[in-house]
Amino acid sequence: MSPRRERPFIAINCAAIPKDLMESEIFGHVKGAFTGAISDHDGAAKRANGGTLFLDEICDMDPNLQTKLLRFVQTGTFTPVGGSTVQRVDVRFVCATNRDPLVEVEAGRFREDLYYRLHVIPIEMPPLRERGEDVRKLAEAFLDAMAAEEGKTFEGLSEEAAALIQAYDWPGNIRQLQNVMRSVVVLNPGGAVTEAMLPQILRRQAGISAVAAARPATQEGAGAEGEPVVPLWMIEKRAIEQAIAMCDGNIPKAAELLRISPSTIYRKRQAWAAGEEG
Question: In sequence order, what are the residues at sequence separation of 6 or more whose Cβ sits closer than 8 angstroms to the Cβ of residue 224?
Fold first, then answer.
């Protein structure tokens, strides 16, 4: 919906480019600025003028360059490496990271002033393990796309396969899901995706969880040893409160230990305070 939608969209991966080259990649350089600079080079900042500059894995940016980026974000001006002329551009910044920026700030790896300058409209992408039915929909979308690439015909996921996919916690997130579906397509001729087609680690870990969840209690309201069954939300609440206490009230740090996002903790605590089950 932005008027910039037809303008350039320039992406830079801050984790993939050596720190010695990152400044030149963003701000460009002039001829002779360093060994190998045989001509002037327009950086991402200039190429994105009027459009969007996407800085992926922003928390991996070298601290020295963070200072220059802050100045660029604040003023819209920059100087190419080896140059003396200040250039001005009109750029929208979009940044992404797979880390919690506040944790990086507290650890001294990310500038606090840069964090607050960039933190204007935060959009959190929950990990797969918090996405519910989305996991199945994403898996089916990847299956269709990859089957088309391989010239094969698959009929979607069986209920057993879908249950395992949703029960797994996906430590590798979306890339792991993509790789799993690619493996299914490459190693099988087609048809409905069954439990046996899924990788062993998925069947083993997700299967254990599914079996445990499906096992009936020995009596109504009691566990296998006769102990009362505690509602899942109460177990979750205890785990979160214990983690927060261990971290001296530091919610971002507690979230990192629990492998969930801080916003999940804030949301659940708000629900519990309102008397809901979270």
Answer: 217, 218
